[in-house]
Specification:
Elements lengths: L3 E2 L6 E2 L2 E5 L10 E5 L6 E6 L4 H21 L6 H29 L1
Length: 108
């Protein structure tokens, strides 16, 4: 078997696997943490990607948000305000995703 060096204790080992269901579990595949058997630290994670049902739900939710954003601009609709609305939603989504990743790294 191939061994990997642990970044925390610098020992060569075969990682142990710990499977768990991530947030929004029905919409995502299981995640696997590869843990060092000596020090117990998480060496890396794999999995946790969206399932086809999860992708459909995300696209449906995005479509509903897009319809709401367009409905807010229906009185004076022009293409510039529609594009600005979608860009605003995208910027907020990117900010919240960045904060999520940052907090996950701090706690993880």
């Amino acid at each position: 078997m191939d061994t990997i060096e642990c970044a925390h204790c610098n020992r060569q080992c075969v990682p142990r696997l710990w499977h768990y269901r991530p947030f929004l579990g029905a919409l995502r595949y299981l995640k696997t943490q590869h843990m060092c058997p000596f020090c117990g630290s998480v060496m890396y994670e794999t999995g946790g990607y969206l399932t086809p049902i999860g992708l459909f739900c995300i696209l449906l939710f995005g479509g509903v948000l897009g319809c709401i954003a367009l409905a807010m601009n229906v009185t004076d609709f022009n293409i510039v305000s529609a594009v600005a609305t979608f860009l605003g939603i995208g910027v907020w989504a990117a900010i919240f995703y960045g904060l999520y990743r940052f907090v996950k790294r701090l706690l993880g």
